């Protein structure tokens, strides 16, 4: 019985091997790696771009607003009602010209009161000085009498005490005069400040109050602009800041003037970057002073940051960086990707100069580098797409 069962099992195994088409040679070998349908090895799909060689220039484009060093917000230093307005928007004014006046009546009254206080303090000082002089004279007459015992020591002490008190009154009177004189000077300054004057020659850019308006100290009344010193201020990002020099060529385009190119020059460069924005302030002025520019206008400012007659460049998107900042690319040679460290030169938004590490005979990976390893086989989807198109056409 046992021999019969064993025979059945052997026969069943033989039938299963025949049905599965299993061959001893196939079951004995190990895995040969990933295979494509056509029998080739699997390649990573990437998109590549060519390394280019030729003239290369980097230009920075920035937005800026025209400003003026001579721009002042004029405010009232005293509280009061505006009784006259002598200038309006667009008026040309001269330094010291009265633009408006605040009612000076309360200030004039305060000046009169303080002036009277000063006069009274002076009279009080004179009276105290006279009393002090009389007491000192009495002491001078009576001290000899003390030696002849014609007067008591107590009388001399009382006299000296009176002299000391009188000296204190003189000192207080002198301090009171100084205090009242300071108050009087402040009141007279307030009286002068009831007239709002232009701080320099310029134009009235804005008027904020009307006649009859009650203003408080510090409230803005006028804005005066000196349009003879106008510049456009731009913020240069940190990556471009090292290449900006006083002699850097500059072109401006002002939308309000039709965006025609205007030549300019760098007027000022800040000594340090703004720590909040990591940008460098650069002030630019127009070469042609006849161009009618107004503060507040916007402009596009282009700066030539550098140029090379013969440069090797690559797409800026293809450049990767290590954690320590070292730049590198994946270059493709004969269908194989290799990690290549590079040294950068001029850096632009679209393309970047490569000083060391590449030549124009290779292409680099633009997209699809996430899973690459040094020596990985790659398939360029741009090349394959071109082949497919040719086959269909």
TrEMBL record:
In what residue span(s) does the CusB-like beta-barrel domain sit?
Answer: 231-304
Which Gene3D superfamilies does the entry link to?
2.40.30.170, 2.40.420.20, 2.40.50.100, Helix hairpin bin
Residues in a coiled coil are 149-197
SUPFAM superfamilies, sorted: HlyD-like secretion proteins
**Pfam annotation, one family:** BSH_CzcB
Q: Which UniProt keywords apply?
A: Coiled coil
Q: Which residues form the YknX-like C-terminal permuted SH3-like domain?
A: 312-379
Q: Domain named CzcB-like barrel-sandwich hybrid: which ranges?
A: 72-226
Q: List the InterPro entries.
A: Beta-barrel_RND_2 (IPR058792), BSH_CzcB-like (IPR058647), RND_pump_MFP (IPR006143), YknX-like_C (IPR058637)
Classification via PROSITE patterns: PROKAR_LIPOPROTEIN (PS51257)
Instruction: Name the protein family.
Output: Belongs to the membrane fusion protein (MFP) (TC 8.A.1) family.
Stored PANTHER family = HLYD FAMILY OF SECRETION PROTEINS, MULTIDRUG RESISTANCE PROTEIN MDTA
- This one is known as Efflux RND transporter periplasmic adaptor subunit
């Amino acid at each position: 019985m046992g021999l019969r069962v064993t025979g059945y099992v052997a026969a069943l195994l033989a039938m299963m091997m025949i049905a599965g088409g299993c061959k001893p040679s196939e079951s004995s070998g190990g895995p040969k790696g990933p295979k494509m349908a056509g029998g080739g090895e699997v390649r990573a799909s990437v998109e590549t771009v060519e390394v280019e060689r030729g003239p290369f220039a980097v230009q920075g484009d920035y937005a800026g607003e025209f400003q003026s060093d001579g721009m002042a917000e004029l405010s009232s230093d005293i509280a009061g009602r505006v009784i006259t307005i002598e200038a309006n928007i667009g008026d040309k004014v001269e330094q010291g010209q009265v633009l408006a006046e605040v009612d000076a009546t309360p200030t004039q009254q305060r000046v009169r009161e303080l002036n009277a206080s000063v006069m009274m303090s002076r009279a009080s000082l004179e009276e105290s000085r006279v009393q002090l002089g009389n007491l000192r004279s009495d002491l001078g007459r009576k001290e000899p009498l003390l030696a002849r015992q014609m007067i008591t020591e107590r009388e001399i002490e009382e006299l000296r005490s009176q002299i000391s008190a009188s000296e204190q009154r003189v000192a207080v009177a002198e301090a009171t005069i100084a205090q009242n004189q300071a108050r009087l000077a402040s009141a007279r300054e307030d009286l002068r400040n009831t007239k709002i004057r232009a701080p320099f020659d310029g134009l009235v850019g804005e008027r904020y109050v009307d006649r009859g308006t009650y203003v408080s100290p510090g409230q803005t009344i006028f804005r005066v602009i000196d349009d003879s010193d106008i510049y456009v201020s731009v913020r240069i990002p940190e990556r471009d800041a090292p290449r900006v020099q006083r002699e850097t060529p500059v072109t401006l385009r002002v939308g309000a003037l039709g965006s025609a190119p205007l030549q300019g020059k760098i007027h000022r460069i800040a000594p340090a970057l703004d720590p909040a924005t990591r940008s460098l302030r650069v002030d630019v002025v127009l070469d042609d002073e006849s161009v009618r520019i107004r503060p507040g206008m916007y402009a596009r400012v282009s700066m030539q940051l550098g140029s090379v007659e013969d440069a090797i460049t690559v797409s800026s998107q293809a450049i990767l960086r290590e954690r320590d900042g070292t730049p590198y690319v994946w270059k493709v040679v004969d269908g194989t990707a290799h990690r290549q460290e590079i040294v950068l030169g001029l850096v632009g938004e679209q393309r970047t100069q490569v000083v060391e590490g590449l030549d124009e005979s290779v292409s680099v990976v633009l997209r699809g580098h996430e899973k690459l390893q040094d020596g990985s086989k790659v398939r360029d989807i741009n090349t394959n797409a071109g082949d497919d198109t040719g086959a269909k056409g």
